[in-house]
Write a structure and sequence with these properties.
The protein has 571 residues and is α+β, with helices and mostly antiparallel strands. Helix content is 28%, strand content 29%.
């Protein structure tokens, strides 16, 4: 019968655990004496002495069929079968068997009758906890192989897999290790995390027959792991009904048993000392973590603006060929323009190659490729005289979509570029791409049969070339055609000490000047209106408080004058 499993977590030593068990038989022997008494009472030849003898025998029988015992953690008590086995002299192979033989020989008699225990180093294991039966038939018997495999944990295999030519699934990780290490053997071939097991058993064999393993029943299973988690099946009875267990013999004898927690409880002083100790421990650990992290919020230096960008290349759509990948470059302006990056210069990367799929009549390749960049801007010394001039140089993103098929034919599929948004927050953009075309049909034939097509040597040409020095850029004669589209997601974060709100107008003026330089479209008038409204409300509250104090003083003065006039009138 499944009584359910409960879990406890304890910080105390498991050696302090004590479990009280009360076992009582409720059939056969407890019914027959009562029938004998009724028969004796109905007989005319019954005497008072006979009735007293029968009641005494009934009490003796009930005491034999009832047992109370308190077990400590990993305390070994022998069953009648183990007692009969270990009392004989024989060549015991193991150290545990020799120790059990010595203990049994030194015992004059067993302190327990039906109740006994199996400790962690005993060979007993409850096969019902590990075996998985195929059918629900009570007559199903597990095979010897199933019994052995039940004590071995399943291997950790990779759940991710890929489909090859639509015929089979091949795991990405080779699950067969030809030369496993000691750590690998320990991790893959143990049952669970290291734990200790303790079984409280009952020997429900008949008195006149030799006990066997089939007559042993599990009353309670307790497991404790290294993390202090206690797994108990079943739970303590507390105020609930006793558990019932029924034998498999022909008589179907029924026993009731209860489980009680008999561990010693701490008094109030011990609990306070333990709580104080844990508080000091957690406080020291918190201080240690704070010393590692620091308490100050990291800010850029005064006059420096930090730009942090977290981007994602989401997908590519409606390009000519399959096997797409994307090259990207984060272009940071020069130091002369006031910009500097953590890694220095331009940041670049390449996504994985992705096979397209048809989605609403569109060929879509999903990349979900993340990238990030961190840059700093400080106004150049030459521009400080210009005041609040808008920053013309701003970091940009350049993209090139390419394809590579199974014949290693490389083709440029499209180009696009964007300026990193200067407003903080999330920005999702669908970028339309273009690609250069050749002057004749030969380039199209070459692109189809052997791969290759006109491509850009410098990706900055998709916007304003980095080496351009003139005032007007002309691309007359440069032939292109529209290709697919690229979906990009960008999250922008701006950080500067000038963003901090200040009580002085000078600091507020710096903030407004910085937002003007960035050319931001964020409307800060509402925020300023809220601050102004709060200031006005504060002034009104201050004025009302001063007026209330003045009225109170005038009222007290009037009352004093009235009392004085009344006294003079009485005199």
């Amino acid at each position: 019968m499944d009584f359910g499993t409960v879990f406890y977590r304890s910080k105390d030593s498991i050696k302090n655990l004590k479990i009280g068990v009360h076992l009582k038989k409720v059939t056969s022997s407890s019914i027959v004496p009562q029938a004998v008494i009724e028969q004796k009472v109905g007989s005319k030849s019954s005497t008072s002495s006979g009735m007293h003898e029968i009641r005494r025998q009934q009490e003796m029988l009930s005491q034999r069929e009832e047992e109370n015992f308190t077990f400590h953690w990993q305390q070994k008590f022998y069953s009648q079968r183990e007692f009969d086995m270990y009392k004989h002299d024989r060549d015991w192979d193991g150290v545990i068997e020799r120790k059990y033989h010595s203990d049994v020989v030194n015992l004059s008699e067993r302190p327990n009758r039906r109740l006994f225990t199996y400790v962690n180093h005993d060979k007993f294991t409850n096969q019902k906890e590990n075996l998985q039966y195929v059918t629900t038939s009570p007559n199903e018997v597990p095979t010897p192989l199933a019994v052995k495999v039940a004590n071995v944990r399943r291997r950790r295999t990779a759940t991710s897999s890929r489909l090859i030519d639509g015929e089979g699934i091949t795991p990405k990780v080779n699950i067969v290790d030809q030369k496993p290490s000691t750590e690998s053997r320990r991790r893959n071939h143990v049952i669970v995390t290291p734990e200790q097991t303790f079984y409280i058993m009952a020997d429900l064999s008949e008195k006149d027959k030799e006990p066997t393993e089939d007559d042993e029943y599990v009353l309670c299973t307790i497991k404790v792991d290294a993390n202090g988690v206690i797994t108990m099946k079943p739970n303590f009875n507390q105020a609930q009904k006793p558990y019932k267990i029924e034998t498999d013999r022909l008589g179907k004898e029924v026993y009731l048993y209860t489980l009680q927690n008999c561990s010693n409880t701490m008094n109030h002083g011990e609990k306070n000392r333990e709580e104080k100790m844990y508080k000091e421990l957690y406080s020291r650990h918190s201080q240690y973590l704070s010393s590692l992290v620091g308490t100050e919020f990291e800010l850029p230096p005064l006059g420096v603006t930090r730009l942090v960008m977290y981007g994602e290349i989401v997908s590519a759509r409606n390009f000519d060929y399959d096997g797409l990948f994307v090259r990207y470059i984060v272009h940071v302006p020069s130091r002369e323009q006031g910009w500097n990056s953590v890694s220095g210069g331009s940041l670049a990367g390449v996504t994985q190659t992705c096979i397209t799929k048809v989605e609403n009549r569109d060929n879509v390749a999903y990349f979900s490729f993340p990238f990030e960049a961190e840059m700093f801007y400080k106004k150049p010394v030459a521009d400080e005289e210009d005041g609040d001039r808008i920053i013309n140089s701003w970091p940009k993103l350049f993209f090139e979509v390419c394809s590579l098929d199974s014949w290693s034919r490389f083709r440029p599929e499209g180009y696009c570029a964007i300026t990193i948004p200067n407003t903080p927050g999330e920005h999702v953009m669908e970028l339309n791409c273009w690609r250069p075309v050749g002057p004749s049909i030969v380039s199209n034939l070459r692109r189809f049969f052997i791969g290759g097509a006109p491509e850009l040597d410098d990706l900055t040409y998709t916007h304003i070339p980095s080496n351009f020095q003139g005032s007007r850029l002309s691309r007359f004669g440069f032939k292109t055609e529209t290709s697919g589209s690229l979906k990009v997601k960008v999250n922008v974060l701006l950080q500067s000490q000038e963003f901090c709100f200040s009580k002085t107008a000078k600091r507020a003026g710096k903030k407004d000047a910085l937002m003007t330089q960035l050319g931001s479209t964020v409307d800060y008038t509402q925020i300023r209106a809220v601050i102004d409204a709060f200031s006005k409300a504060h002034e009104r509250m201050k004025t009302a408080r001063e007026n209330a104090l003045m009225n109170l003083k005038e009222l007290s003065l009037d009352e004093t004058t009235t009392l004085a006039a009344e006294e003079m009138h009485q005199q």
